[in-house]
């Protein structure tokens, strides 16, 4: 944010000509439902976008996140107005994955190689939370899928 | 312990009421920051939601709660700028903000005293600054071409005039008014 934009933001509040819409306030309050106490936030690794990623689909996005010695890979592939997700946790081990959008949460048991998937997701926001049987959950940041 | 520190500590423990109080305290701040990027209401709502989601995901790792206003402003600005780039067909990866922009009139805006000073400062501006700021704050967010037409000035003069008027306003608020 530039100093000019910051000052204009301050003026907007002071003058009160552009109030916060009610649905925006409600969404902000609802965001708290996504808090996972004690979860470790995985930070993005530098490779943030890969055209034609592991499945070779044009337009797919491959992202990698790391925390506490684990890496979560997330590949998003658009199909029409929906999005498919393929993911992997390394090192692999018994764990559950939650695939969260702002509308729903899907739960998957990871394969022995640490993979998980979901199809037909609504575009918008999603995050993945991996739950090892013992230890701390690891969550990706919220990712914006295309629309 | 500051009030912000108390609210964040309670929210970390799962206190939804504390979260609601945080939202109530800063939702105008986040909205105003996003809208200052010229986003339409639909996109602004998206950027605001992202900002609150970012706070939720980092709630357990906030080191200095008293810097939250600056963090929110920086995050909201980054999300708004990213969305604006997307709408323009650009694709960049932005790292999440790690720090705020420091003490400034902007980061202390939430006090009633600063709001009063800003209102007063606008009243002290001369033309065309007063009219320009009034139009810039319009919820309809006029373009530079529309501003030029309504103010009777060349389009190329709008940007420099805007910068000069905001600098003048900042000087008045900060007490550096010559």
TrEMBL record, chain A:
This is Uncharacterized protein. It comes from Bailinhaonella thermotolerans.
UniProtKB/TrEMBL annotation, chain B:
GO terms for biological process: DNA-templated transcription initiation. It comes from Bailinhaonella thermotolerans. GO terms for molecular function: DNA binding; sigma factor activity. Keywords: DNA-binding, Sigma factor, Transcription, Transcription regulation. Residues 22-88 form the RNA polymerase sigma-70 region domain. It comes from the Bacteria. InterPro entries: RNA_pol_sigma-70-like, RNA_pol_sigma-70_dom, RNA_pol_sigma70_r2, RNA_pol_sigma_r2, RNA_pol_sigma_r3/r4-like, WH-like_DNA-bd_sf. This is Sigma-70 family RNA polymerase sigma factor. Belongs to the sigma-70 factor family. ECF subfamily. PANTHER family: RNA POLYMERASE ECF-TYPE SIGMA FACTO, RNA POLYMERASE SIGMA FACTOR HI_1459-RELATED. The lineage of its organism: Bacteria, Bacillati, Actinomycetota, Actinomycetes, Streptosporangiales.
């Amino acid at each position: 944010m530039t100093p000019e934009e910051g000052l204009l933001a301050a003026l907007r509040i002071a003058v009160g000509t552009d109030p916060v819409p009610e649905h925006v306030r409600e969404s902000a309050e609802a965001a708290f439902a996504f808090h996972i106490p004690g979860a470790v936030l995985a930070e993005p690794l530098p490779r943030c976008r890969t055209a034609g990623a592991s499945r070779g689909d044009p337009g797919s996005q491959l992202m990698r996140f790391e925390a506490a010695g684990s890496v979560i890979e997330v590949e998003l592939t658009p199909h029409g107005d929906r999005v498919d997700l393929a993911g992997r946790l390394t090192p692999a081990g018994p764990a559950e994955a939650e695939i969260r959008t702002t509308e729903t949460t899907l739960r998957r048991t990871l394969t022995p190689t640490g993979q998980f998937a979901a199809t037909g997701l609504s575009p918008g926001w999603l995050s993945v939370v991996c739950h090892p049987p013992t230890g701390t959950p690891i969550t990706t940041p919220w990712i914006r899928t295309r629309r | 312990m500051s009030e912000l520190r108390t609210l964040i500590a309670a929210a970390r423990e799962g206190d939804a009421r504390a979260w609601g109080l945080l939202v109530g305290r800063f939702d105008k701040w986040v909205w105003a920051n996003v809208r200052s990027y010229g986003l339409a209401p639909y996109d602004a709502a998206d950027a605001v939601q992202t900002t609150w989601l970012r706070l939720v995901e980092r709630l357990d790792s906030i080191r200095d709660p008293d810097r939250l206003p600056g963090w929110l402003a920086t995050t909201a600005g980054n999300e708004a700028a990213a969305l604006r780039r997307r709408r323009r067909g650009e694709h960049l990866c932005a790292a999440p903000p790690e720090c705020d922009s420091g003490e400034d009139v902007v980061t202390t805006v939430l006090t009633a005293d600063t709001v009063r000073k800003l209102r007063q400062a606008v009243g002290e501006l001369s033309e065309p600054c007063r009219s320009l700021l009034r139009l810039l704050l319009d919820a309809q967010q006029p373009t530079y071409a529309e501003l030029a037409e309504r103010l009777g000035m060349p389009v190329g003069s709008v940007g420099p005039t805007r910068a000069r008027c905001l600098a003048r306003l900042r000087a008045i608020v900060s007490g550096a008014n010559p």
